[in-house]
Amino acid sequence: MGVQKDTDGRDRILRAAARLIAESGGEPVSTRAVCAAAGVGAPTLYHHFGDKQGLFDAVAAQGFEEYLAGKRAMAASGDPVEDLRHGWDVHVEFGLTHPAIYALMYGTPRTTPAVDEAYAILLGLVGAIARAGRLRVPVEAAAQVIQAASVGVVLFLIANGDDGGGLSARTREAVLAAVTVTAEPPDGADPRDSRAASAVALRAALSADPPSGLSPAEAALLAEWLDRLAG
């Protein structure tokens, strides 16, 4: 009975904090207001969450779980670039639908476990493009560019209003053009793009299934050479 009551108190605090944050319009939300809305005392809040930041991290993680569930459930289409395009759209839609939660996740310099998991999913999407021979830059570099651009788009649209998807789509396509190559390179394509994509593909394949015949030093050297070719 005591455990159930304890859990109920935690849930009430989370629900109250999420509602107040969503209604705040970006203004600060105090722990006193959260306690009043949840009908608990400050010691109860601190018992469950440690401090205000712990509470806000828990609110963000709970809200972000919906986004992560959708990302985890995404089925591969057979075209890894199209999968990444869809992943971008899911990311932007979540941010615009849950602006207060999104700002908690990405609007501060702190990194939370939920953001780390989302980035790991992005790395998986980019890695699939690399293994298909369609990535022109190393996986980590491409993922950083994609995350920076998508987060920037969402925060800009939260602050300035949604433009019906125009800005997001244009940015998405510009980023994809910068980090990927087409499945069938057109006549006159720069051969360096094909060489880079091949190097990235081999690097990704070796990362997924390290060769047993190489020592750690040899594997590291090979990875360095492939990164140079990709660059």
Description:
- With 231 residues, the protein is an all-alpha fold.
- 75% of the residues lie in helices and 0% in strands.
- Helix 3 (42-49) crosses helix 4, helix 4 (52-72) packs parallel to helix 7 (113-131) and helix 5 (80-97) runs parallel beside helix 8 (139-160).
- It is elongated, with a radius of gyration of 22 Å.
- The N and C termini lie far apart (61 Å).
- The mean pLDDT is 83.
What can be said about this structure in brief?
This protein has 231 residues and is mostly helical.
How is this fold's topology laid out?
Elements: H1 2-23, H2 31-38, H3 42-49, H4 52-72, H5 80-97, H6 99-106, H7 113-131, H8 139-160, H9 166-179, H10 191-208, H11 216-230
**What percent of residues are in strands?**
under 5%
Query: What percent of the residues sit in helical stretches (DSSP H or I)?
Result: over 70%
Low-confidence stretches: none
Total DSSP E strands: 0
Summarize the helix and strand pattern as letters: HHHHHHHHHHH
Supply database-style keywords.
single chain, 231 residues, mainly alpha, 11 helices, 75% helix, elongated
